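Dear colleague,

Thank you for sharing your sequence with our group. We've completed the structure prediction you requested, and as agreed, I am returning the results in plain text so they can be pasted directly into your records. Please verify that the sequence below matches your submission; if there's any discrepancy, let me know and we will rerun it promptly.
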Amino acid sequence: MDAPASPASVASELRRAPAWLLGVVPLALVAAVVAALALIGAPGLGERRGPPAEELAVERTRLEPGVIELTVRNDGTDAVRVAQVVVNDAFAAFSGGEAAIGRLAAATLRISQPWVEGEAYEIQLVTGSGGTIAHEIPVAVATPAAGPSFYGLLALLGVYVGVIPIALGMLWLPWIRRVPPRVLRVVMAVTIGLLAFLAVDATLEGLELAGEGPQAFGGVALVLLGAAAAFLVLTGIGAWLDDRGRTAAGARLALLVAVGIGLHNLGEGLLIGTAYATGALALGAFLVVGFALHNATEGLAIVAPIAREAPSLRRLAALGLLAGGPAVLGAWLGAAAPTPAVSAVLFGAGAGAIAQVIVQLVPSMRDGRGRALHPGAVGGVLGGMALMFATGLLV
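Please find the predicted structure tokens below.
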């Protein structure tokens, strides 16, 4: 009879085994355990008792003459069948949703309802088991018809609130070039204050959207994942630029700032597109002026890192488009009705990208004693945040 292998001999055999085999073995064992549980019927994991957990989240509302259209997604673990629809305490005829909606699946309900513009509507979706899901339309407004002219208008709005204000803000570059180093450090601190406000704003917007959408996709975790992914990706891009060594430090910072602001403006564009597609946005002259003042300060954040360099007009234009252009793309995406989960991820990405840029900018505001938070820097950061808050009140 052979003697059992000693631990030393087992360890020696493992060291000689191919690396790929050592990586596959745990996965094979997991698959074997799952298959065994399936074959024996998973004892102890019988069918759940009690009523089904039915949840539906309304992702989109469209209104056309005589019809209210709701796009719903199953946010729970059990399939949901919509049996009845009640609008303002009266039963309404509808189509769609009669078949069971599986987990994470979506369905479109077309409700026959002669709605009146400007009035509020309370909609109750009654499920097959008798549960109810409530949805409110605070102000009924017809949804604009999508088409070339519609998307052209959204592009124009994106230019108004993104491209033009940032281009105007970049006109501070000649002034920044002529200020002494002590003042430039304060300007860099103001830039960090501006970006910090944008990061907080993007985070709050993302958390709000995550709370509105289906929680089965991750909810608030989507914002955190988007922020972490953007932070890491931007860090990798910065390291790659450093390795190439062909880009000046200021130009590299300006590029990263433009990318971070661009991701934030992508989120702003999403809100504009979504609101306009549902008829909820009245973009008057005052609101355009408010957006212009609010986003013009972002132009300062882009040109501050290159105050001591001589960028070409072509590079400045590229930076401006990189920062402001995503507002157009966001408006188009918003009108195309991305899910709240997608919007939450994008806002999180904007916050994470801006946070990484702030980390890169902090050394530029250090004084002669190596302090990052000297009195001038503290005042600059607070001033930048106050400036963004004040202009944000106009939007």
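Summary note from our side: The longest helix spans residues 181-212.

Kind regards,
the structure core
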